[in-house]
Amino acid sequence: MRRTVLLLALAVALGGPLHAQHATRIGDAAVATANQLREQALKDDTGWKVVESLTTEVGPRLAGSEADARAVAWAVAKFKELGYDKVWTEPVTFPKWVRRSEHGEVLGRSAQNLVLTALGGSVGGTVEGEVVRFPDLAALQAAPDGSLKGKIAFVDYQMQRKQDGSDYRNGGGIRWGGPSVAIQKGASGFLMRSAGTDTTRSAHTGNTRYAEGLKPIPAAALSTIDAAQLARLVAIGPTRVRLALDCGFDGEYTSQNVIGEITGNARPDEIVLLGGHLDSWDLGTGAIDDGAGVAITMATGALLKPMKPRRSIRVVAFSNEEQGLFGGRAYAEKHAGEVARHVIVSESDFGADRIYQFDSSAAKLQPQAMAQMSSALAPLGIKWMPGAGGPESEMEVMAGLGMAWASLGHDGTKYFDLHHTNEDTLDKIDPQQLAQNVAAYVVFSWLASQADGDFGSAPKPPEAAAH
Amino acid sequence: MRRTVLLLALAVALGGPLHAQHATRIGDAAVATANQLREQALKDDTGWKVVESLTTEVGPRLAGSEADARAVAWAVAKFKELGYDKVWTEPVTFPKWVRRSEHGEVLGRSAQNLVLTALGGSVGGTVEGEVVRFPDLAALQAAPDGSLKGKIAFVDYQMQRKQDGSDYRNGGGIRWGGPSVAIQKGASGFLMRSAGTDTTRSAHTGNTRYAEGLKPIPAAALSTIDAAQLARLVAIGPTRVRLALDCGFDGEYTSQNVIGEITGNARPDEIVLLGGHLDSWDLGTGAIDDGAGVAITMATGALLKPMKPRRSIRVVAFSNEEQGLFGGRAYAEKHAGEVARHVIVSESDFGADRIYQFDSSAAKLQPQAMAQMSSALAPLGIKWMPGAGGPESEMEVMAGLGMAWASLGHDGTKYFDLHHTNEDTLDKIDPQQLAQNVAAYVVFSWLASQADGDFGSAPKPPEAAAH
After folding, report:
1. Alpha carbon of A123: minimum distance to chain B alpha carbons (Å)
2. Coil vs helix vs strand at B163
3. What is the ipTM metric for this complex?
4. Chain B interface mutation, best of A109, A236, A241, A427, highest count of B Cβ atoms under 10 Å
5. pLDDT above 90: percentage of residues in chain B
6. CB pairs below 8 Å between A and B: how many?
7. Helix (H) or strand (E) holding A174
8. Which of B51, B56, B74 to probe the A interface (max A CBs under 10 A)?
9. CA B126, B129, B135 angle in degrees (round to 5)?
10. B100 exposed, middle or buried (CB, 10 Å; 0-12, 13-18, 19+)?
11. Using 50, 70 and 90 to split pLDDT, how confident is the model at B15?
């Protein structure tokens, strides 16, 4: 308390911010180099070559599948090829979920197939029943318990298009929680309109989880077009559907987080942690989710290496993000004692459209350093928007431990057109926008590595970390 | 010969066109009504309701499938519901082709599934082999005979986007003729980049035919994205693919042309023949191909009925166009003796985007009547473009018999994004543009029914009809 008062007095006296005596500063030479690196990165195609290689040569890479091991081998080889100083792996174990086949059809007077895909984590099984349509999750929740006995619940919510992707809260929420609500109402199967903003026949998969104590039912997402078709049929009259999923959990699998490091020139034990996730869903080749994130961060380290950053640049290609942040949690567990050494962390897991906003947990603590970073990012069209971002995917786990985070927010307007579908393929990435993404990560990472001072990483007391 | 000289002399003397004494004229009252019908049709949603009903309640309707019979029953009921004076069916028999399952995958170091679809008429079978890529059909044709022994031929031609769809000549040509060329070169399987202009993972099916005397091989089209992926893999190194198709011919099936007629008030035996085809491929719900054509022409008759047209308006929902114009050929055979009674014919089988051009076989013979029709169509943004159009689909058969034809040409810029794919669904039709299509058919059909005089329909001598 005494210390706080003293600091406050000092800050007021100097007209400077709180914690002024700990202000992290970035030197002019570092800023000048950042400006130069930014322009260089915009002309560089390393990121493009990496994502082309991953999506073509490995292709889809569902966690635990045969392609998981090939993806790990690919990442080890790619880090080495890009000149990383250290490359290693750390094991990640998780339950293996397998999709074998999936089929949906309308029965009777308007018999026709429906394009759908099993939700990740769904049980298999074949069910037939009359479809009961609900416009959203609240309507399903309002149905009396037991009222859907022998029927198939259909939540027909159309996710809204937003630049920050914020309506995934609703779309993803239905996917995550809908099946359990349907079970409580007595349903024998669960269908939802895909959590997507496209109008195509590509169904969006993604993880679900059954609440404890409930007997799981098959759960699938219809393409938005098939959902609209089913809604029209239900409006005409009672409509029966057959849903046949062959999928489910099949033992455990141990994959690897793949880690590459550019060793710091002055402070090798201090780490700027970057990452993306190496796994993808099985329907597409995981270009925007998250081949792009792997490529952006791998390319960042490669472009910084010749500049000899003071701190180490550590890039992690995380294992199995899609089915529950398994790679992130394994990394956090292994490195829980090294929170302060992780000076700042940032993940790219929101596609490859242009980055338009910058935010950090250090916004209030280090306004000067953040202002310097923002100025160097501004020529890329990136705005400093404190409070608008957050730690992405795995970095949420790291932030939970107390690591400072930065967020370089992609424009998500089109992200949910493709997310978790068979259309998540290389052609959806624009090489110019990907280069802008790399340039942003290069600028941020370089300045974070050269900064004199920290960004507030400190272990949280256990009770705080739990929240 | 003498008659021709006389006519020519007369035409020159009068300063009028050839055949001036037979000039077909359209009265002022008919033109005034056409203008009124045009504006009414633009506000009418009959066409939309018909195509919504067909694509929703019947859904996909592959010729010979269970849905074929439901489509016939639907069309009979819909003609009656729309108030047609006479509704009947005429049998159409054809070999039944069945698609049961289809699967493609890259084997080995980059193992991954490929999205593909069997070509209509393909044999089933499972083949594995190294892929040999050819940029176009000419390159495949240039390969030495026998050089593809045990290999899979892959013709990777990217169809070009054109307003008139004219590059279907190349794309469709590969689909039609490619498998036979591949067989001649010794290939055990045939793959092609879909004949489509989209960049999606929807493969385009469509008919193929093996030349006589060749032993058929399984033939499929990759989505354009999967074709690009396979091309990248082949460029990296030898690439083996497994192609497994379960499909083929299975006996004969008898379906029906479904015909509705608004009986002419003054000349009931003279017919303005309109049509679309009732069958679709099985992947989509056949909205633009050709639910739209059925809806546009059905709606046209319904909108003309209250006006009591002088000639009969006959609308045919043709059976099995997709697999070889079976419905059109059956109609032509049955009505071969009534060529002159079919005053003019027109089919809509090129989607539902706006109609932008008008052409007719009567361009030179009846320039005055054509000018009158063109003037009434002009407010719809339709240009008179003699020589630019031709008789569509079934009407090619009718034109071969000597029937005069008109063509109301749709803008085909986007048509081959969807053609023969699972994305050919109701949502791709814009209700406003569909109403414009109906308005165009209403104007044309009304003026054709009211015209004093003919458009040149006359039986061709057998030797001419054969060409």
Report:
1. 23
2. coil
3. 0.93
4. A427
5. 94
6. 79
7. helix A168-184
8. B56
9. 110
10. exposed
11. very low
Give residue ranges of B with CB < 8 Å to any A CB: 52, 56-60, 66-67, 70, 106, 109-113, 115, 199-202, 225, 228-229, 232-233, 236, 284-285, 422-423, 425-427
- Nearest CA to CA, how far is A61 from chain B (Å)? 9
Q: pLDDT band at residue B7, thresholds of 50, 70 and 90?
A: very low
CB A392 within 8 A of CB A145: no
Write out the DSSP string of A47-79: HHHHHHHIIIII----TTSHHHHHHHHHHHHHH
Determine, for residues A225 and B67 on separate chains, whether the beta-carbon distance falls below 8 Å. Answer: no
Residue B48 token pair: 């939309």
Q: How many separate helices (H) and strands (E) can be counted in chain B?
A: 14, 14
The answer to whether the CB atoms of A201 and B199 lie below 8 A apart is no
Whole-angstrom distance, CA of residue B405 vs CA of residue B399: 7
Query: Cα B261–B263–B266 angle (5° rounding)?
Result: 150
Q: Which residues contact B28 (CB under 8 A, 6 or more apart)?
A: none
**Residue A40: helix, strand or coil by DSSP?**
helix
Are B314 and B261 within 8 A, CB to CB? yes
Strand extents, DSSP E, B293-440: 311-318, 342-347, 355-360, 383-384, 406-410
Which amino acid appears at position B7 of this protein? L
Kindly give, in sequence order, each residue whose CB lies less than 8 Å from that of residue B36, ignoring residues fewer than 6 positions away.
none
The encoded tokens of residue B321 equal 């166009």
pLDDT (tens digit per residue) in A438-466? 999 999 999 999 999 999 999 997 665 54
Backbone angles phi, psi at B432, to 5 degrees: -65, -45
Contact B67 A113 (CB under 8 A): no
The pair of three-digit structure tokens given for residue A389, joined into one six-digit string: 């971002």
pLDDT, average across residues B278-294: 98
Q: CB neighbours of B374 closer than 8 A, spacing ≥ 6?
A: B358, B382, B384
Fill in the DSSP letter of residue B362. Answer: T
Strand partners, B125: B245
Distance CA A368, CA A26 (A): 9
3-state secondary structure A220-255: EEECHHHHHHHHHHHHHCCCEEEEEEEEEEEEEEEE
